Amino acid sequence: MTSTTIDSPRTPAGSAKRRGVNWEKWGWIYMRVSGVVLLVLIFGHLFVNLMVGEGVKAIDFAFVGGKWSDPFWKVWDTLMLWLAMIHGGNGMRTIVNDYARSPRLRKVLVGAIAASVVVLILLGTLVVFTFDPCPVVPADQAHLLPSFCPAP
Q1: What is the tens place of the pLDDT at every residue in 68-105?
Q2: pTM for the structure as a whole
Q3: What is the total count of domains within the chain?
Q4: Residue 40 domain-assigned (yes or no)
Q5: CA pseudo-torsion sign 75, 76, 80, 86
Q6: Domain CATH for 47
Q7: Residues 148 and 61 sit within 8 Å (Cβ to Cβ)
Q8: Are 38 and 87 in contact (CB under 8 A)?
Q9: What gap in Å lies between CA 9 and CA 11, rounded to an integer?
Q10: How far is the C-alpha of 5 from the C-alpha of 110, rounded, in Å?
């Protein structure tokens, strides 16, 4: 009669320990930390936009222009954009890893998710930091500017 020993559930798979960075662990930690930070950022964003001042009826082009004239709100909104996009992309990557059976399909889908996240982060950051509510326009188009912009 032979006896079989079952390893503890917390024993690493395989006989040799893996070396290097455990990306799954850091992804898991990132999801928890970014989720908590996002709660603060999103509820702060909603409070300022919907409850302070005149509420939702005050949100228009001028409101955004005024808000983004302050570097604090540019950083706030950019941080919210980056954390949300990376958080969502990491969540989608986890879903793909769980359900895509083919390694090739998994690689294609994760690559598409990564590309989408990078493009959206770049475009969103570009919008936040290049937004100008009073662009330079020819004199014949001055009527297109918001009322708070000085006439050319």
Answers
A1: 888 999 999 999 999 999 999 999 999 999 999 999 99
A2: 0.77
A3: 1
A4: yes
A5: positive
A6: 1.20.1300.10
A7: no
A8: yes
A9: 6
A10: 38
